[in-house]
Each structure stands twice: as C-alpha cells, then as structure tokens.
Specification:
978 residues, alpha/beta, TIM Barrel, Aldehyde Dehydrogenase, Chain A, domain 1, 4 domains, seven-stranded mixed β-sheet, 34 helices, binds nicotinamide-adenine-dinucleotide
C-alpha cells in the first residue's frame, strides 16, 4: 500500500493551473458565433434540443431540397421556443425563399458543425490532419466512423479502410519530424500514429450468444489489421461500445493479442461508467502480468450512458452503468489509480476533458514517481483544445481522437457528441458554457447512494429475457439442450381430471430441423377422451368458480415461478420442437411468464366488485363471473406463450379449461400442464387433450358443455370454428363466445427520411426471424420515393450474411419451417411470385429438415396473391409507392389488420400513419414483432381476429360475464346514507 501524502492539495494546485484557461472558449460554445448561440439555446430548452438533434440526424439522408426545407418547417415551425436565427429562416422560406438556396445553406451550416468534430471524410483527409497535428506536437488516433454494420460486405469494407489507411500513412509518417515526447514512453519507442476500431463493426453477426463463433469471425478480420499495424508501425486500440458486447470484446482482444505476442502496441478502452469496469481492469492486468506483456488501457468515462440506461431498463436487466455522474467520476479516479499502480503491465491513457480527473491523474503519477511520458492523455477532436495545449506545455503526451468518415454514417456519432455537450452533466458544458466555479470543478467526486429501481415495483413488470452475454446463461442453455436431447423419444400422457393417461395412438413430434430426431411421442385423444374431459371440467367448475380471484391468481403466480425454475429446459425444448433460435425460444418462455403475472394481477383488479352510481337508498354492485368451460386451441409458433396466455386468462377468470395444443408442439404443451400441476392446480380444472383438430377440436367446439372458445391460429380454421360455434343445437343453453386471433399480412412502410441502418435491421428481424413464422411478421415492404434501391441493396447483403443451420447452434439465424406442408406452401408461393413479380433475391438453404431460404420479390402488384395471402414463411414482397398517402392505401389494401410499421423521420408522415394505417399494432421506427405483455397489448381486427388484445387491460373481460345487482336499501323510509 502506497502513501500518497496530501494528494488533494496537489490536485488542486494542478487544477488551478488548468482552470486558468477558462477564457479560451471553444468555438462550439462561443456565443458570438451562430453555432454557439444555437448550442446555448439547445442547453436551455429541452424540446428545441430534441428537435434540433433529430433534424441534424435526418438531414444527411434528405436527397431533395423540398424535403430539407419541408422537414425544417416540420421540426421547428410549431416550436415557440426556437431561436431567432431559425425562426427567421423559416419565415423567409414561407415567403418564397428558394428551397434550393435554403437547403444549401442549411447543409453547409450543419457540415460546419460536423467539421468541428469529424476530422475528415476519408483517409487522405485523415493523413493531412495527422500531419498537421504532429507538427503542432500532438499525436492522433484515427477512428473510422460508421455505426451499424449489417452485412459481411460492410464489415469487410470497414476492415479494408484501416488497411488502406495504414499502408498509405506509414511512408508519410516516416517523414514527420522527430518528436521525443510523442515517440517515446517510459519504456521505449512508440509508433507515430494509432488507429482505433470497433470490433462490432468487423463482423455483422457479432453476438455474445454465439460466443466462440463471434470471436472466431471477429478474429479473422482483426488479424490482418494487427499484422498491418505491426508492419506499418502503428499502435492500435480496441474501442468499446455497448455493454452487451463488452466481455466479448475483451476476450477477443486477449485472444488476438496472444496470437501476436510480439506486437507491443495494442490497447483497449475501459469505460469508467460501467460498474464492472474495476473487475475488468484488474482482469486485464492479471492477464498482462501472466503473459509478461504491457498493453495500453484507454480510460474513458463512456459515451453510451443514455443508451445503456434505456436499453437495459427496457429489458429489465440490472443497470450496468452508474446512475450518477459523480459515481462515474469517482470510479474514474479509482481506475486511474489502479492503472498507475500497475504501469508495468498497462500504459495508462487518460481520455477525458475533465480538469479534476486530469489533475488527479497527474498528481497521482507524480506521487507514484511515474515519469511524465508514462502517462498519455487523449482528447476528442474539436473539444478541449486549450486544455491539450496546456498539458503539452506541462510535458505530457497528448493524443487527439480523430473521427473520420462520411457525414452520413458519422451523423450518429455527431449527434452523440452534441448530446454529450449539452446534457446537464457534461463537464465541458459546465466549464465553458456556464463558467462553473473552480471549487465546483475541482472538488472530489462524491459517490451517491444508489436508487434501486429494479427492486421497487410490485406492479406488473415484464420478465427480463436471458442475457446471453453472461457466460453462465450460455452454459446453462447448453446443458439444457443436452438434457432435452437425452429425453428425445420419451412418451407423454394426456391429462384428465388430475390423472395422467397414456393412449396407444400417438402424435410423433419431430425436430423440424432434423427429421431423424423424435422430440417426443404424445398420446393422442379421441372423442371419448373429449367427452371425459368435458365431464371432468364441468364437475370441477363449481368449486373453481367460487375460489376467490386472489387465490386463482396465486396459482398463476406459482406457475410463473415453476416456469422460471425450468426456463432453460423449456427454451431448449422449443429449439428442438419448433426450431426456434435461442433468443426466440427464451422470448417465448418470458412471454408465458408475463401472461401469468399480468393476468393474475388483472384478475385481482377485476375481481373487486364496484358500486355504481352514488345515490341514497340504493346499492348497485357491478362485478364479473366466469362463463363456464373454456376450450383453448393454440398454434405451434409460440407454443408456450400463446397457450399459456389463453389457458391462464380462462383459468384465472374462473373457467375450467380443456386445452388442445397444436400437433406440432404437443411436448411443450404438456410441459405447460406439468407446471400448473406442480403449482397445485386442483384436479379437473385443466385438462390436456392433444389430438387431431378436425376430430377432437371440432367435436368440443360444438359440445354443449363448452361455453367459450379461445382460439389462436389461421384464418381458415378460425372462421370455421366461429361458424360451428354459432350453430345452436337443441338443448344448448347459451351462445358460445369465440375469441379468435388469426393471421396477418403485415406491411412496413419506409419513406425517404428513414434511417437506413435501423430500417434494414428492423425489416430483417420483422420478416425473417423465426423464418417469418410469427403472426406479426412483416411480409410486405412498401417503399416511398427513391429509397427503394439503396434499401434493397443493403437488405440483400444483410440477408446473405445470416447464418443458416440448426437452431441449437447459437450462430444460427435461419432455421427450418415447421413442416412439409408449410415448406410446400412457401415453395408454391415462390413459383406464383415468379409469374406475378420479379425475383430480386433468393437463397438456398439445405439441411435434414424443412429448410426454406429467404426470398425477396420486387415490383409486386399490391392486389396480387403474393401481396394478399398469408404465406407464413421467409418471403418478402416489395411494393413501390409514389408518396405516403399511396403507401398507406396499399398497406390497408388487405383483409388482415394485425401489425404494421413505418420507418420515417418525417413527423407529418408518422402522423398520417398513426391516423390512417389501420392495424391493431402499429410500430414506429422499430421492428413490428416482439409485442410485450402489458406494454404493447397484441391483436388485430378485420380477418386478423375477433377479440380484445392479449396482454391488455380488456382481455380477461372476454372470459367473464358482467353482472349487476341492484338493491333497494330503503326500508320504510329509512336508508343508510353513505
Ligand atoms: P392452425 O389454424 O393450423 O392451427 C391452430 C390450432 O387449431 C392447432 O391447435 C390445430 O391443431 C387446431 N386446428 C386445426 N384445425 C382445426 C379444426 N378443424 N378444428 C379445431 N381445431 C383445429 O394454425 P397454426 O399453423 O398452428 O398457426 C399459425 C397461424 O396462426 C397463422 O395463420 C398465424 O398468423 C396465426 N397466429 C395468429 C396469432 C395472433 O395472435 N393473431 C398468433 C399466433 C399465430
């Protein structure tokens, strides 16, 4: 343990010297310039800030001047707080100022903002900027911008840009003047330039769920970069981005560096805002110590704070970042100390503009007797210029981080930078724009007590999906896949009146990805069993209906707990039984748990009678009663979630249930019943009746004991059941209620302002996840204006990069379809499509199961079969529209009305879609699948369904009859007055 003496005193002295620079305001904050005024306004007015950034974000993709000025008006004309400079501009435009001229001025203005932060557009610019910096006594690190890499092609281009840069730069850099400070650290010579790259941009399918595969693919792209860095004498840094990929990046870094044991100039970024950063840093140091090498560690605060907060809160995962800036600042100091104490194995690179953090690092370096050149400071291009000059004077090596790239992909970066500058906590804002006092700036950061929002809610919260970036979850999933495989071929009984019964006739459940594998053999029922099941349900109903709603809800909560206990096994089973990928399978289990938790709470709410009208002398009690016996008929595509949703809703509202699963997922169906059984559900309340739909299903639909049918499946079957249920035979005492959720022909509209990275990803996931076999899947894409070709080009390369194979392999994104008839149907539609439209893309996928590769048709007639029929497979029909009105008209030209989406950054178009795009679930700028219980209640109208939305506040009402009891409280003139 070292004694640091009066460190605080020294920090203050150093800080005082740096603080003296406050007068030198960087241009972005200089209020004498128009940009400074805009930034100043943005800092004060949150709504203006949001619109300003949104406008800047969309601007580079706007191809016509009409759009540029049109959107300017959209974003700002209704904004009372917009600054004069913008209001004047809008005023001039509306008075006839030429849009062409106006749009040129706007673009030039934003380019000038971008130029503050982005060092150049290509490697030629980069080389020039680096040369100039070197002359001024600063080193540089080049980062090629580009946010989302969607295909191997794009990843390959990203890699090549680095190789080209290093090859071209090396001979130029060799001619730069000697600079002892920049070219040496405490242990020897340093390269003259550095590159920074994002591992996620080097492999389009990088995902920790596919841990080994992702690392192997990333390494293939990183090896040439490191080899070139070695031969051209460059240093390099692995940048760090989303927390979700953090462990993967660190592991990739270590593995690559072990291959390049003779390359001493590698580095990696560590983000101090991450709670795990201390453990990560210590791990890296231990690794470097063991390998007897020294690596650079660039200590940053982290640039994705808002993203991490929102993303992880949406998922229900613990927050990986500190919530308070003070905590991050404090942790930065803790990590700085660790770096300095271990400088033998790590080169400390302090990347911040914060005077306190910098002064702390310097003071700590001094008391630790660390030579000045052992420390490196890094700052962003366009920020903190006065500071870096001062630090250079003090004898420290400064490296400027230089983002290079087109404005278009660079814009996301720029927007982040701008956000960072104007957010409440940014140091630069406080320092330069608000002139915070020296004491405020130099005081040591004080960690704050943590808010633990995760623990608070007792109200419904969605079950968090598994985080496959965690090694333990991947391991448990692998074990579960193994144990489910060991159970292949097992026999499963039916369940009537609390008894498990085996029958001779069986449904053989096959693995659709490998037909040689029998997942299970499930006893199949006949009408006799149906009769017994109905009798058992009737017998149990009396007692079940009088069970208190809270107690019925409790069975749901206990079943949810059972699902949680076996969530890996259930997910693994779905991987085999219906061909879901790991994440999709887990998503289904999570949704099943959500239904149980949500409907349980809903029933507690609805179970309390309410008194209507408050008049003296009368009482009007309004409450709900169960309908009776509910037949649940479910599909295979969400084999646990949809079945659980319907069964749970029926049960909790007091009905007894006969559950008929799909013949393609009877083993999963059986597991559902097992969980309810283990939760202690009384005998006879839930029967499990797998069997042929036409026989058992139809028989029960018309059965006199059945009061209610909850069906989810195809339109044809649904309509038939509605018709059968409507026939009232002799002796029937009620009209059967049918809740039917059916198919879709869902469309996504893409206009010319759409953000293409998000759009391509969103369409890809919506259309092709689970091979397009989600009822909400996108099967029509409607493009507006001239985005069509660029969108399709990127979509094609993205699809080409998807790995096809067995769903049990976590690398797989394209698996099988459910059975042979589904495959034949898809193939038939492809033949029809070839006649009706132009085949733009198709991809063959082989395997021992029912594999159908993705297909895209273009020039599709909106009224053709391809655009009208539900195919339920990976077939995308692309249709062109002149404008948004036509796009909405095409989208609505369908008998279905389930889900739909729009990708747009044009508020007017988004508004139109909200008003006129007639679907049950409309999604804006996100994928159209993956509705969450309680957050996006799900269900459509038209031929997509008759029923209130699943997972919504009205759903349970369908399973009950409302009653009202009015009592005259007046007896001979006396009445209670309340
Ligand atoms: P499907 O209609 O073929 O089968 C659904 C269920 O009905 C199965 O259990 C099946 O055995 C049973 N069945 C079939 N014929 C029957 C009959 N004559 N009488 C009684 N029962 C019968 O549908 P599927 O292939 O399992 O599922 C895919 C379909 O479901 C797609 O059309 C999809 O869009 C739709 N779906 C809709 C939603 C939604 O919420 N709207 C959700 C999931 C699936």
């Amino acid at each position: 343990m070292k004694i640091y003496g009066d460190l605080e005193k020294r920090i203050r002295e150093i800080g005082r010297g740096l603080y003296g620079l406050a007068g030198d305001v960087p241009s972005i904050f200089n209020k004498r310039r128009w940009m400074g005024r805009l930034m100043d306004h943005a800092m004060k007015d949150a709504e203006f800030r949001l619109n300003l950034f949104r406008y800047i974000d969309v601007l580079p993709s706007l191809k016509t001047s009409d759009l540029i000025v049109g959107l300017l008006q959209e974003y700002f004309s209704g904004l009372p707080g917009a600054p004069l400079i913008i209001r004047k501009g809008i005023d001039r435009i509306s008075r006839g100022f030429m849009p062409v001229v106006a749009s040129k001025m706007i673009k030039a203005g934003v380019r000038s903002i971008a130029g503050q932060f982005i060092a150049g557009e290509d490697h030629h610019d980069a080389i020039k900027v680096l040369g100039t910096l070197w002359e001024d006594g600063f080193a540089g690190s080049i980062d090629f911008l580009g946010e989302e890499v969607l295909s191997d092609k794009e990843a390959g281009q990203y890699m090549l840009r680095y190789l080209q840069l290093m090859e071209t730069l090396a001979p130029v850099a060799a001619k730069w003047n000697h600079d002892a400070l920049l070219e040496n650290d405490d242990k020897g010579q340093l390269p003259r330039f550095e590159i920074s790259f994002k591992v996620t941009s080097l492999h389009s399918q990088l995902d920790p769920v596919n841990w080994d595969g992702s690392i192997a693919s990333a390494k293939e792209s990183i090896r040439p970069i490191v080899a070139t860095a070695r031969s051209t004498k460059a240093s390099l840094c692995f940048d760090m981005e989303q927390y979700y990929c953090k462990d993967l990046v660190i592991e990739t870094f270590k593995q690559v560096m072990e291959e390049f044991g003779d390359y001493p100039y590698a580095g990696i970024a560590i983000q101090a805002y991450l709670k795990e950063s201390r453990t990560d840093l210590l791990g890296l140091i231990a690794w470097a110590r063991k390998k007897k090498r020294r690596v650079s560690v660039r200590l940053v605060k982290g640039a994705y704070h808002d993203y991490e907060t929102v993303y992880n809160m949406q998922k229900g995962w613990p927050l990986p970042v500190f919530e308070n800036k003070e905590d991050t600042d404090n942790n930065f100091e803790v990590l700085t100390r660790i770096l300095i104490e271990n400088a033998e194995f790590v080169r400390p690179v302090i990347a911040t503009h914060n005077i306190r953090s910098i002064s702390h690092a310097i003071a700590l370096g001094e008391v630790s007797n660390l030579p000045n050149n052992a420390l490196e400071f890094q700052m962003l291009h366009g920020m903190g210029e006065p500071l870096r000059r001062q630090l250079k004077k003090m004898g420290y090596r400064i490296r400027v981080y230089l983002p290079v790239g087109d404005l278009l992909p660079g814009m996301a970066y720029l927007v982040r930078r701008l956000l960072e500058n104007t957010s409440n906590v940014s140091f630069l804002r406080g320092f330069f724009a608000e002139n915070r006092s020296y004491d405020e700036i130099i005081n040591p950061p004080e960690p704050k007590p943590h808010r633990t929002w995760e623990k608070l809610p007792v109200e419904f919260r969605n079950e968090p999906p598994l985080d496959f970036s965690r090694a333990e979850n991947r391991e448990k999933m692998r074990e579960a896949l193994q144990s489910e495989r060991e159970a292949f071929g097992k026999r499963y009984p039916i369940h009537i009146d609390g008894k498990d019964i085996f029958r001779e006739k069986e449904i053989v459940s096959l693995n659709p990805a490998d037909l040689e594998e029998i997942v299970g053999r499930v006893s199949s029922t006949d009408r006799n069993d149906a009769e017994q099941a109905a009798a058992a349900a009737v017998k149990a109903w009396d007692s079940w209906r009088s069970t208190a709603p809270e107690d019925r809800a409790d069975f749901l909560f206990r079943t949810a707990a059972e699902f949680r206990k076996r969530r890996f096994e259930l997910a693994a089973l779905e991987v085999y039984e219906v061909g879901k990928t790991w994440k999709d399978a887990d998503g289904d289990i999570v949704e099943a748990i959500d239904y149980l938790e949500f409907y349980g709470r809903e029933m507690i709410r609805l179970g309390r009678p309410v008194n209507l009208g408050h008049y003296p002398g009368e009482s009007n009690s309004y409450f709900y009663e169960p309908r009776g016996i509910c037949l649940v008929i479910s599909p295979w595509n969400f084999p646990l979630a949809i079945s659980t949703g319907m069964v749970a809703a029926a049960l909790v509202s007091g009905n007894c249930v006969i559950f008929k699963p799909s013949g393609f997922s009877p083993v999963t169906g059986r597991r559902l019943v097992d969980a309810f059984k283990d939760a202690g559900l009384p005998n006879g309340v839930l029967q499990y009746l797998p069997g042929p739909g036409q026989e058992v299903g139809e028989y029960l639909v018309t059965h006199k004991a059945v009061d209610l049918i909850a069906f989810t499946g195809s339109k044809d079957v649904g309509l038939r059941l509605i018709k059968l249920a409507a026939e009232t035979s002799e002796g029937r005492r009620n009209i059967k209620k049918v809740i039917a959720e059916m198919g879709g022909k869902n469309a996504i509209i893409i206009d010319e302002t759409a953000e293409l990275d998000e759009t391509v990803k969103g369409v890809l996931e919506s259309a092709l996840e689970f091979q397009g076999q989600k009822c909400s899947a996108c099967s029509r894409v409607i493009t507006v204006g001239d985005i069509h070709d660029e969108f399709l080009g990127r979509l094609r390369s993205a699809i080409e990069s998807l790995r096809a194979g067995l769903p049990e392999d976590p690398a797989t994104l394209i698996g099988p379809v459910i059975d042979n008839s589904a495959l034949k149907k898809i193939q038939n539609f492809i033949e029809v499509g070839k006649k009706e439209a132009s085949l733009f893309f198709s991809r063959e996928v082989d395997g021992k199961g029912f594999f159908a590769g993705p297909v895209i048709f273009v020039g599709v007639n909106p009224s053709s079969a391809l655009a009208q029929e539900e195919i339920f497979g990976p077939v995308i029909a692309v249709i062109r529209a002149q404008d948004i009105d036509e796009a909405i008209e095409i989208a609505n030209n369908s008998q279905y009305a389930l889900t739909g989406g729009i990708f747009s950054r044009n508020p007017l178009n988004i508004n139109k879609a909200c008003q006129r795009f007639a679907v049950g679930n409309l999604y804006i700028n996100r994928k159209i699948t993956g509705a969450l219980v309680g957050r996006q209640p799900f269900g459509g109208s038209g031929m997509s369904g008759v029923g209130s939305k699943a997972g919504g506040p009205d759903y349970l009402l369908q399973f009950m009859n409302p009653r009202c009891i009015a009592e005259n409280m007046m007896r001979r003139g006396f009445a209670p007055i309340s």
